[in-house]
Amino acid sequence: MKRLINVMAAAAAVVLLVPGAQAAKEKTMSDVKLTLAVQTEQGRVRVGVVLKNEGTRTVYVPRTLAVDKDPPGRLFDVRDADSGEKLGYEGIMIKRGPLKAADFMELKPGAEQQNSIDISNNYSFKAGKRVYQIAYEGLYWADMKEEPDMAKALTLTSAPLLFTYGGK
Hints:
Layout: H1 2-29, E1 32-41, E2 44-53, E3 59-62, H2 63-66, E4 77-80, E5 104-107, E6 112-118, E7 130-135, E8 137-140, E9 154-157, E10 161-165
Antiparallel strand pairs: 1-2, 2-6, 3-5, 4-7, 7-10, 8-9
């Protein structure tokens, strides 16, 4: 009976450790932390972006997110917080070819990159004071050659963030 209890305890320990091992493995695959902050003043909506490489290897993050002040195309998912309706995009759209290494910025282990992006004229904010939700979902790479290998892409996401804006 005592042996059966020991076997059951060992089996339970294995079951409990396996999900932990998976979580640890997933943590190492998500080395980049992305934080957004929104500042609304003087009729402008500015998105503060902080990218931090918490891993032990160099990664490659989207240049449009890391350094561009007025990125071409819909970079963020912006929604009316009450209705969930996605805001229309009114900014510059540039038709472009496949992604290249030049579209990404190297971020060394422990490094942090900050950017401020003005999205005031890029999304169809409604008149009057409203609450909006903003989030980002994109890709980054742990290694980069001339052309990103889509099979090796890692997901880069921010937590959804609520902000209030008075509209145009």
